[in-house]
Amino acid sequence: MNFIHQPNKEKILSPEPLVHHTSHITNSYAGNWTSIGPYNEIVESKLDDYTYTMDDVTINYAEIGKYCSIASHVCINPVNHPMDRVTQHHMTYRRISYRLAETDDEEIFSWRRLNRVTIGHDVWIGHGAIIMKGVKIGTGAVIASGAVVTKDVEPYTIVAGVPAKLIKDRFSREIADKLQQIAWWNWPRNIIEERFYEFNDLETFLKKYGQ
Ligand SMILES: CC(C)(COP(=O)(O)OP(=O)(O)OC[C@H]1O[C@@H](n2cnc3c(N)ncnc32)[C@H](O)[C@@H]1OP(=O)(O)O)[C@@H](O)C(=O)NCCC(=O)NCCS
Prior knowledge:
single chain; UDP N-Acetylglucosamine Acyltransferase, domain 1; 6-stranded parallel sheet; 4 helices; 19 strands; 15% helix; 23% strand; globular; binds coenzyme A
């Protein structure tokens, strides 16, 4: 048997968003230092600074804050088909693709846009999680692998399961409030660089920067 080892080619990022060539992005915005992995489909969404996605991620109509980590096979806002029509097949609104009309049914797309997903800063979304329409996820939250999130998630809490339920708090309410008050994610790059190693020590960090 042959031992095989292929060292990871280190991905060097820059303020310019890095988008894998296999991904498709439509009418979206990606901030500085963002990275979009392979085979992503992103539609009418915003990913703010430093947020990254791994492979096979789908994001529709979502606002995503800074420093979010989005694992493989996550789906944010899987959109609904119109269930009240004779058929729920997408030919009734993707009419151009099926050569059934000269225009698509824009009403359906406007209806989908009404239910945007909103995600705060520093949210970690685990492998294969699904975030359903209209959900708001608070800053600092953790979404467990495989969760289906159907209701809003409080900041700095951890939710898991189908449908997702609170399993624990990441930090006490006091710490969560302090972190949101510090709002380190809004610090400019030079300050992040200067204080970079302090991110590993929560207690000292809060003492130094919390009120
Ligand atoms: C949510 C998570 C962070 C919790 O980790 P943890 O704090 O070490 O939690 P524990 O393993 O102690 O589990 C706590 C409880 O939650 C349950 N739980 C943990 N992960 C779960 C999941 N994904 N789905 C359902 N329940 C889960 C455990 O069974 C346990 O339940 P119990 O108290 O009834 O025994 C972790 O389980 C997880 O899902 N991580 C995501 C990993 C991932 O997707 N990485 C991708 C690379 S970025």
